[in-house]
Every structure is written in structure tokens, then in C-alpha cells.
# Entry
Amino acid sequence: MKIFLNILIVLLAVAACFSDFLLIYAIPPEKGASAAYTIRSRRPFIFNQEKEFVDARKFALKNHVPIYRFIPDTLKSARESAAEFRRTLSENKGNDLKNREAVKNFLESYTDRDLKLSDIRRLLQYKDMEKLIEGILTIEESILHELIVDDREKPDGKQAVEVLYSDPRGGVVYPVKNVISVSHAKKVFTEKVSHVYWQIQDDVVNPVSRFFMAGIKPNIQYDEIENNHRLNEIHKRYPKKLIQYRPGDVLLPFSKTISEEDISLLKTYYDLENNTPAAGIPWVLVFTGMVMILYQPVLSKFIAVEFRKAPPFGVLLTLLIIMMLLLTIYLLFTPFPVIGFPFCFLPFLIVLLNHENLTAFWTIITGALLASLLCGNMFIALALFIFSGFTSILAFTKRTRRINILFPSAMAGLLNVLIVITLSVYTNDASLILNFSDSGKDLLNQFLHSDLFQDIRFAFMGGLFSGPVALIILPFIELSRYNASTFKLNHYMDLQHPIMRDLLTKTPGTYQHTMTVAYLSQCVGEAVGLNTDLLRVGAYYHDIGKTAKPNLFIENQFSGKNPHHDLDPVKSTEIIHQHIANGLKIGAGAGLPQIILDLIVQHHGTLPVEFFYNEACKSGTDVSKGEFRYRGPKPQTVEAAILMITDAVEAASRTLHEPTRKDIKNLVHTIISKRISDRQFDECDLTTRNIATIIQTLIDSLEASFHSRVEYPWQTEKKEKPARNDRSGAPKTLNKKIKDSQTPETPREDR
# Structure
């Protein structure tokens, strides 16, 4: 399994590093479509916008549709002028000089031409003047229904124009052939009038025609503001800058509508990367392989994981795979920068699963190396992930409730912010340029809209979200019964758990034994530096199998006959062994984590049941010691070894009456020596230093338990009374001989 997980990590690293190249062929970006994934730069490169966009910019400017705004009052003004003309003629019907001069002045004010009084006289004498005015007005109106523009604003070289009308019509695009200049409109007007009224004398038609021709004016006007805005948009779309892209920078964000500029940028980038993918695969394979080869021996040989013979590589490698998968998803399907990735969920999970801090530290370094390879920007990723990971572990001291994870998450976020600011100042890459001549409000506005503030925001959120992400993933990790978090152990540490209540009611003697073993195990665990929660829970549940047949174990026999007196020693041994199988059955049915079930199985190792073995030897029959040994396995972890020692020490200590420190020391030494000589600790890393600490801690703890108290008078009188037989009818002197014949390595619970 370990080899498979290592191979999976290497293959995943290759796939993640070149996932964008794979996707670009499977789902190529198309203009106008929504980006199905994020594309990030994997190397530094410069994008020359002036060079790449010059043709596109020229094309866009050439095909820019000029904007005109419609002037709605042109036709209305023409009709009002015609009405005023009629009114002037009506008011000056007479042929006297005064009337002729009034009409002459009126027409000259519109036409800017000098008219003769003789022409005005013939005009006033014309009988069908009303029909003439109506006809010429109709011609004028037909001209004014066209799009007329000032001669200086004619859209030369364009294919179309856009005319902006008032709401709700909005903008309408017309072919440029529909737009005529004022001079052309007047020319068309003159030709039409001449064509229609060729029979009428010129000295009658011409003054009226010139009057109405003066009303032909532009009905669309070039909108300079809107045109400048749209031209600026084109220049923004096709800028002329040199843009420096760093490894990890986003080229095309997820879900963005792909524009022509994006296609140009990607083409430039992939032209540079044309030969990189195939050439980069060996590098990724070598780098990832070296990281994984270095990770495991350092963890198992050099890092102080001295409490386990084999580090939990299955769990740790699985966590690294989860980290790589989440980082790949983050890089491909979010537009956010790398610094926003909640990397610290990895150390949080390691610590919550009760693995040592040094294991977490080395796994953080390994994870940061893999993450930096995936995201491209190795320096920033290493700095952020390593330092924030270390900080999160050091700050994660209290782990009793889930809310306790928020403080180390916030600390990781704050350190991320500090690193981002430091790197920005160091590299002179902070895009925040403050003008200290501005007011405080302007400075704040500059900061809030700067790239540095965006980086700070994402860096802090990346640290803060690490804790919640870890809590979301943790239940899925705990689906494997080989993983038990601190929170899960706290659940089973509750003495109101149904199994513990059952242990108290059915086997009160075993329950008291369990509580003392838990106390001793916790004392030893604290002294050695182990997970005391795991030791305490293991001690609580190590003898739950005795609830199946309570009266067959001596600590639960308060009166009556011992059933083992009538049984063959081999049969009694089988019954004693059965409490391990029963414990596994009960624990598995209650959903105990496998790590606790392992302690149930291993706390007796392959020790023999000495009492019944000795009884069998006394019978004179030829017996094998192997028949009386537990099935094992031997302790695989230091926690199991400590539970084996404290279980035996607690049981043997009950045979001591008013012991001295020397008696306790001899008992502890004898029990541990017996197990060492029987090679019970060969499969776990129980060092000599650990053994010395365990012995000293047990002696101190037991001596404190056996401390003397002042005797009451009634207790002294009871001592002076003659000895009487005990409940079994045997004299106390005989019982004492029996107790003296019992070796300390024969705990009461095994009889």
C-alpha cells in the first residue's frame, strides 16, 4: 500500500503540473465562450501588448462605428417656418410698398440674400401660392426624413453609423450610404423642386425654394463624448504596455467570458511553452521522487518519532494526496491567487489525528515542496506554507473543542499577511504607491483598491479557512477505523458511554482496576511525552471483554466459590484468553476506532497466564507453555507497551500490604524485566530512556497511592483480635502463604 501511495503521489504531481496543457487540448478556449478552467503561468514571461495587439487595434479602430445623436426638432422647425411664411403672406396681401418691404425683409432673414421688390410683387400676385408652399414643404419633409449630417462630420471611410435616439428606441445602426451631408441634401432638394415646378416662373419659385432650403439642417450630430469613450475602450482592450507575468499568475480566470485579447495572450504564452511539457515531465518525476524518497527515511529514522516502530505512512501519504487534489482543484477552478489556498488544513489534520508535532513539521515541509511544484511559484509557496504551517501547529495547543481551531487558523492568516507584506517590500513589487500629500481618506482609498490589499485579503482568508476545511475533511478521514482524532477520543473518554456504564454495573472490580490503570497510564504518558488521551481511552476499554462473563475473573468475585477451582488449567486459560476476543467484538460493535481495538488485543501481547501454567505443571502432566500464551500480537506501539506494563503493575500492586518504596520498586522492576526477557517489546520502539522514565513514574505514582494515614482506635482494636478464617474457610496464615507464593507477574485478573 505504501508503494502504491508513493506512486500515486508522483503520478498526481505530473498530472497536476501539466493539467492545463491537457485541458487546453481537450477543451480549447474559444472566443465568446465561458472559460471552463483557470489557466495560470508556470514560468515568468513578458507579454508585449504593443506588438501583439497592433493589427487588432488598427482593425478595431478602422471598424469603429461612429456614434451620432438624433436631433428631433429639425422637421418640427421646418413646419413652424412654413406656418410663419404663410402667416406673413396672409398679413401682407396688399401690393403696396409697405407690404412688399415686409415680405422682403422676412425672406431675407431666412435666405441671407438680397431680393428685389419687383420679385416680391410677382410673388404676392401669384394665385396658387398656398399650393406651391404645400408642395415645396412636402419635398423638404421628404428630404428631412433622411439622415442628414453636417458636411464636416460626414463619416468617410466607414461602413456604418450608429444613431442614438431617445428611449425606448435607443441606438440604431444604419449603413453609411443612408447618411447624406447638408450640402447634398440641399442639392437634392433643389433638383426635386426644379423637376416638379418647372412650369412656374423662376422669379416665383426661387424665393420660396430658397426659403424652405434654409430649413434643411443636420438632424444627426456627431457625439464626441460617446465616441471618445468607445475609442478609449478600444485602446484599453488593446493596450500598449509590457506586462510581466510571474509563475502562478492567472492568465485566464475560471468562468470568464473569453475575449480576443485572452486568445492572443494564451497564444503568446503557449508559443513560448511549446516544447516545455514533454521536457518538463522528467524534471517533475525526479523532483517528486526525491521529495518522497527523502520524506520517509527522514521521518522514520531521523525525526524523533521514537514512540512508533513504523510511522503511520498510510495516513500521512493519504493526507498529502488530499492536499494535492484540493490544491489542483483550487488552481483549476478558482480565479484566486495561490496565496489564498488553505494549506494549513494539512498540519491541523495531522495534529488532530494524534500524530507527533515533529511528524507534522516534516510533513509540512514535504507538502510545501509538492505544493510549490504544483502552483509554479516555488519561493512564495514555500515561504507561506512552511511558516504558516509551523505557526498553526505551535498555536494549536488546546484541542478539546472544535472551536479551538479558530485561534491557530487566525494566527496562520496573520503570519500569511506578514509574509506577503515583507515579500512585497523586499521585491519592490507592492503595487501600492501612496501619495502622502493626499488626505487620509484618499490614502485609505488608494490602499483598499491596490493589488497589495487584495493579496493581504486572500492571504489572511487562506489561513483563516484552514481550520474549517480541516474540520470538514476530518470526518471523512475518520471513516477509516484506523484514524481517531482528538475529538473522537474525547467522545469515548466520557464515562457515561454505554460501554463504560455496562463495565461499572456488571464488573465493578474491573471498573476500579480500569480507572487505576487509566491514571497510571496517563502519568506515564505525560512523563514520556505520549498522547495521554489515547492512553486513557485505551485503558478505559482494554478489559471490556470481561463484561461477557464477569464472575470468571477474580476482581469481580466478592463472595462464593471461585469457578476456576473445578476447571482444568488449560480450560481456565482459554476462558481468560476469551476476554480479548469478547473485547474486540464489543468494541467493534460500538464503533471503537481500530487504534483502540489494537490496544485491547496487544495489551497482553503473547504473555503466558503464569498462574494456570504453574498449576498445570504441579499436576505432573507434560504441558507446553505455548498453550497458556495469549494469541498476541505483541505491542506494536509504545502506547500498547505502556498499557501492558500499567495493567500488570496495577493488578500485582493489589497483593501488596503496607509496601515500602523498595517493595514497589522491586515489583515494577520484576514486571518490566519479565516482559523484556520474554521479548514482548521487540516490535515497538520502547527505548532504554523510556523504560527508565516509566519505572520512575510508576514508583512515584504507586507510592502516592499507598501513602499512610492515621489509624482510628477501632482499627487498632481489630488488629489485636485473634485471626479468624477468611470467607473460604482457610486460615489467614495459609492465605498469606498462598499470596507469598504468587509471583508479581501473575496478576489477579488472570486467575
The chain has a mean pLDDT of 82. The longest strand covers residues 160-164. The longest helix spans residues 276-302. Residues 2-17+275-477 form one domain.
